[in-house]
């Protein structure tokens, strides 16, 4: 008779461990699992599994992408008011939804010039670099986690888009159509952009399962 299986639970100290603290997250409601911030992957809460994943190509690629951006704290003024921070966040969301990021250089200066009676506008300092960091470090994590928590056990549809560019790496864009509880409506939303090992049906299925 084999040894009884020991069920490892998530340890809070892992969140402060040097190797894990930048990308490891708890899974709400399931102490036996852990989530990886960059890869959007959920594994068993085991130190060995974490170390194995750290050495995987998928983790290294995702980590190097996010590491190429400087910390958002570099661009934040600690004396900045909440209204200014809120304005910068909303303008960044507006830009990413409707325009090229290049246009924010003009938009930020336009707001400061024509809304001088507003404290938020007067202290506004929003250009391409800061907007990019707000999108990647503030908005993206929220919108990546929101569909998962919103779906729960509800039905949803998966839409996939395979890249057709001529680069060496091939990616699969994954979107979902689901009922958003907070909005009370059915919406299409981006879920992930995953690298394909090979350009065949089995590789696509494997990526979606992950």
TrEMBL record:
User: What is the protein name stated in its UniProt record?
Assistant: DUF4371 domain-containing protein
């Amino acid at each position: 008779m084999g040894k009884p299986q020991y069920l490892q639970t998530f340890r809070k100290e892992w969140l402060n461990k040097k190797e894990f603290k930048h990308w490891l997250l708890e899974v709400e409601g399931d102490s036996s699992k852990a989530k990886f911030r960059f890869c959007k992957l959920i594994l068993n809460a085991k130190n060995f599994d974490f170390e194995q994943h750290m050495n995987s190509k998928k983790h290294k690629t995702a980590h190097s992408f996010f590491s190429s951006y400087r910390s958002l704290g570099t661009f934040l003024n600690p004396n900045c008011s909440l209204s200014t921070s809120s304005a910068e966040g909303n303008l960044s969301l507006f830009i990413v939804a409707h325009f090229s990021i290049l246009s924010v250089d003009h938009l930020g200066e336009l707001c400061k010039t024509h809304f001088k009676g507003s404290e938020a506008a007067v202290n506004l300092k929003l250009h391409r670099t800061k907007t990019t960091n707000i999108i990647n470090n503030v908005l993206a994590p929220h919108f990546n986690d929101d569909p998962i928590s919103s779906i729960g056990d509800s039905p949803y549809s998966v839409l996939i888009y395979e890249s057709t560019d001529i680069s060496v790496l091939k990616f699969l864009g994954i979107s979902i159509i689901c009922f958003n509880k907070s909005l009370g409506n059915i919406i299409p939303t981006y879920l992930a952009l995953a690298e394909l090992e090979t350009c065949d049906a089995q590789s696509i299925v494997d990526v979606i399962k992950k």
